[in-house]
């Protein structure tokens, strides 16, 4: 799963990269994006800011409403479920990413391992989006089995990385065509194992359906 990623380009750079229009009004976001925090999304030919994670409405033991949980990862094998189906069929998007991180190491001492494309400082991850009462505009990252990818040595799942020739197929193709793109990345990956503590800041948050 992915609960932390980097996006080091500004809105105008992202718009140029994806041949899209930069949304009006600015978009403030951190270079490290965590669940529940804002990130950039390319949808409908426009680059805009949305919150990372679909709201999962929760209740306490006595039935009292709790703060919604951001579900920031959508498993490929769950895209036909009620939670994801309509967004997958009608609202697919591109998520600009510079690198994503996974936790490695012993419990209580996990560190960040970053993965990226060796020759690109920006690439697209498959995403879905929706408008919600709880978070407003929000998005989630589509994950797939990492078997066959270099990232398999780090985690059993990875984001669905899209090459430029598949951008249009993801956002505008049929659900079957889009689902066919949800495979592990078999190209080269740069893997950077660091001594950064995983639980620093908001990186300890986890949510996947």
Quickly describe the structure.
The chain has helices at about 10-15, 80-90, 165-170, 175-180; strands at about 5, 20, 30-35, 40-45, 45-50, 55-60, 65-70, 75, 90-95, 100-105, 110-115, 125-130, 135-145, 155-160, 160, 190-195. The protein is mainly β.
Number of strands: 16
How many structural units, i.e. domains? 1
Q: Which stretches are poorly predicted, pLDDT < 50 over at least 5 residues?
A: 202-206
How much of the sequence is in beta strands? 35-45%
Distance between the termini: 10 Å
What is the molecular shape?
globular
The total of helices stands at: 4
Specify the CATH class.
Answer: Alpha Beta
Helix content: 10-25%
CATH superfamily: SOS response associated peptidase-like
Order of helices and strands: EHEEEEEEEHEEEEEEEHHE
Coarse structural class: mainly beta
CATH fold title: hypothetical protein yedk fold
Give a short account of the largest sheet. Answer: 9 strands, mixed
What is the mean predicted local confidence, pLDDT? 91
Kindly describe this structure.
The chain has 209 residues and is mainly β. The protein has a single domain, classed as SOS response associated peptidase-like (hypothetical protein yedk fold, Alpha-Beta Complex), CATH 3.90.1680.10. Helices cover 13% and strands 41% of the residues. The protein is built from four helices and 16 strands. The chain has helices spanning 11-17, 82-90, 167-172, 175-180, and strands spanning 5-6, 21-22, 32-33, 38-43, 46-52, 54-59, 65-71, 73-75, 92-97, 99-104, 111-116, 123-132, 136-145, 157-159, 161-162, 190-197. A hairpin with a 2-residue loop joins β4 and β5.
């Amino acid at each position: 799963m992915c609960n932390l990623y980097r996006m080091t380009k500004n809105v105008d750079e992202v718009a140029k990269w994806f041949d899209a229009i930069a949304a009006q009004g600015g978009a403030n976001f951190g270079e490290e994006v965590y669940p529940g925090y804002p990130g950039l999304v390319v949808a409908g030919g426009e680059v805009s800011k949305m919150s990372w994670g679909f709201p999962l409405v929760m209740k306490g033991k006595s039935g009292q409403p709790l703060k919604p949980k951001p579900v920031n990862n959508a498993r490929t094998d769950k895209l036909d479920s009620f939670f994801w189906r309509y967004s997958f069929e009608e609202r697919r998007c591109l998520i600009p990413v510079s690198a994503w991180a996974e936790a490695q190491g012993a419990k209580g001492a996990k560190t960040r391992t970053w993965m990226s494309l060796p020759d690109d400082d920006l690439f697209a991850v498959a995403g879905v989006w929706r408008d919600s009462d709880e978070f407003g505009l929000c998005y989630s990252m589509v994950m797939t089995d990492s078997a066959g990818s270099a990232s398999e040595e780090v985690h059993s799942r990875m984001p669905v990385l899209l090459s430029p020739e598949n951008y249009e197929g993801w956002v505008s193709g049929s659900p079957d065509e889009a689902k066919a793109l949800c495979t592990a990345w078999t190209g080269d990956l740069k893997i950077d194992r660091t001594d950064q503590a995983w639980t620093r800041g908001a990186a300890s948050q986890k949510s996947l359906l």
